[in-house]
Amino acid sequence: MKTSIATVSISGNLPEKLEAIAAAGFDGIEIFEQDFIAHDGNPRDVGDMIRSMGLDITLFQPFRDFEGLPDPLRAKAFDRAERKFDLMQELGTDLVLVCSSCHPNAMGGIDRAAADFHELGERAAKRGLRVGFEALAWGSHANDHRDAWEIVRRADHDNVGLILDSFHTLARKIDPETIRRIPGDKIFFVQLADAPQIEMDLLYWSRHFRNMPGEGDLAVTDFMRAVVATGYSGPISLEIFNDQFRGGSPRTIAMDGHRSLVALMDDVKRDEPGVKLDLAAMPKRAVVDGVSLVEFATKGDEATALETILETMGFSRTGQHISKQLTLWTQGDIRIVVNRETTGYASSAYTMHGTTVCDVGLNVGDAAKTVSRAEALGANPFSQPIGPSELDIPAIRGLSGSVLHFIDDASGLADVWSIEFEGDESQQTGAGLQRIDHLAQTMSYDEMLSWSLFYTTLFDMKKSPMVDVVDPDGLVRSQALETSDGAFRITLNGAETHRTMAGNFLADSFGASVQHIALATDDIFATSDALAERSFKPLPMSDNYYADLTARFDLAPELLSRLKAGNILYDEDAHGAFFQFYSRPYAGGMFFEIVQRKDGYAGYGAPNAPFRIAAQKRLMRPKGMPRI
């Protein structure tokens, strides 16, 4: 099945768009009329340029306000169509999209519209061209694919077919199962777009908030399942209107688009096993069973300071790499690697970002299959020379050039700790920290959709609704992704300004990925006491915070006193309670979090974030003071 994307979907001039689309692996493009008009090349040259990049022109669009017009407007509409047919032939494409009319003088009536399309089909046939009719969700008379199909059916012409667009169907909450009744050979083209579920004017929603399949809330998979059940085997194409994408990187957006189509059609193939799809096989989404390791790239005094923090949190140094300057720190099921190498990837990461999380290892069922799926989705593989007795652990590039390693039991990769490290993990004593609850990655807001798509198409994870986190100096958007059992959780935090703590971290670290690591305990008060004995310095919270807790929650005085004594924050939801406290900021704004979830609490303490951020900023360098 061929993949395609409308040129309007990404930013740049026409050559820049085409280069990005070709590099992403698409088979073709829908050429949007505005993109062609803005270009200074003639139609034949444009067609040749497109084909020279290995792309087909799958569709020319849009042709507007055609059907149902009274004369002389009707005659003028056919004259306009003939001119577009001339252009199509010079470009070298045979299909034009005609969207349902919004003209104020357009008259309704299925038979009237069908007669117009029959005549248009006759004219197109003489030139070897085809006409596709699409029902806009806001069309004056045809705003439902069922009405559009009836018009096409009554037009009864081989050169006239239906064009389906997932947004127009799903935004109007039309059951996509009705598509199954349409003959597949009369569906000439399929356009796909997702969108967040927002109640607003349909036209405005469509023109500003469309995104890639899997990035929004619409049932695009159900829509496409119904389409393939008809026997449709033509191109699947993206038509995206999004303000954020218009200012983004063409290559990134094109890559995301191709990734979304590959993942979508893989889902469709698995959910509709009775249909035959011309798709390359790929492994299913990987199931992540927790974080195996977090590796810091660091050097000198910064490395010493980091290890001091780890010691005060109850971590024990339980291993030394057999040939590299890597030390292993453990507690419970948590492994943190401190990398002081002066060459190789970690050294480069330190040079770029300062002390940073350069590598995250994930426990998966099959490491090789995980990388295979990642590469099929357009991820970049990672490798570097390995030394004697070292394991070749599969890996890919992640956010900001960081690395994701995949470790499984079946292939023996989980034995890396006993093979590559000398020491004894049984020496650890600990302070009650058991596992990594979640990792928090910081990025620019414009990157959030891209990385949400990356994780949810590669791993078996679900996303939570995006929430706003109020920083004293701006707004940060946050979205949580997690596996069904909570074994792997990650929060994506999008900064829109450098004045926020998240934005300042990005600026100071030149785009480092992980800003904080949340560690789980089963008894936060015992852990707090144990850390105090080790001289751990928690983030100090104001008395005002605890006074407000009394008003917000019905807490026993004894509990409130213990919370205040340990600088522990509290939240609760319909399921249970949440406790959290923090380290003080280190290495330019990174920090650790200690959490305890009780009785199925599902959140991340978002109501506490403004107070935590304010407390952290009180300990960091003043506003306007440059980093030295």
From TrEMBL:
Role according to the record: Catalyzes the conversion of 3-dehydroshikimate to protocatechuate (3,4-dihydroxybenzoate), a common intermediate of quinate and shikimate degradation pathways.
SUPFAM superfamilies: Glyoxalase/Bleomycin resistance protein/Dihydroxybiphenyl dioxygenase, Xylose isomerase-like
EC number(s) reported in the record: 4.2.1.118
Cofactor(s), names only, from the UniProt record: a divalent metal cation
Binding residue positions for a divalent metal cation: E134, D165, Q191, E239
UniProt keyword Zinc, yes or no: no
Record carries keyword Lyase: yes
Protein's organism: Litoreibacter meonggei
Protein name in UniProt: 3-dehydroshikimate dehydratase
Binding residues annotated for Mg(2+), in chain numbering: H438, H516, E593
Catalytic activity: 3-dehydroshikimate = 3,4-dihydroxybenzoate + H2O
Recorded superkingdom: Bacteria
HAMAP family, per the entry: DSD
